[in-house]
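Hey, can you fold this one?
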Amino acid sequence: MLRRWFLFLIILGFSPVIASADTLAPDALIERMQAGGLVIYWRHAATDRSQRDTDLSDMSRCEGQRNLDDRGYEQARQVGEGFERHAIPVERILSSPFCRNVDSARIAFGEDSWEVRDDLFNVPPVRDRQRQQELVDALRRYLVTAPGDAGKNVVIVGHNINLQQAARVRIDEGEIAVFEPGSDSPRVLGVLTPDDFD
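Sure. Predicted structure:
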């Protein structure tokens, strides 16, 4: 299994970097988010690793997917409360169709606050190489496209491999990578954990 993942990442040209020393500290990053104009990429909250994605034929059926665990529910609440506490303005919320992503968005931001986007689908289960590349390209476009309202932010609830391939940034479950759009390639300003909002 690990060997297959390794080969998959090699094939896709995997070369991740993690936020470097020149990125913003959490307090400064939250202050920057309050000003708007950013793309906020949230990897869904923590999941039950004893589960696997076994049936993705109907994305509304969560029993065939890896879902949030108790820690994930708490992380999602932390993020939602943090956005509210720090008055971080949001223009729109885009989510992958996976239940763990939709649940993260729902718990954090409320019912019907998000839009499910098929072009945010998790890359690894996709077997078609062209479709994999289309998903990576779609995310890259999202990360470099500014919100329509410069005073608000776009939030994307997505997956790790997609982000690694689109922006060469790796984050853990529940973490948030913040991007400044407007250039040809994604520019990460920093990474937050749910605890950073406390």
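The chain has six helices and six strands. Let me know if you want another pass with a different chain boundary.
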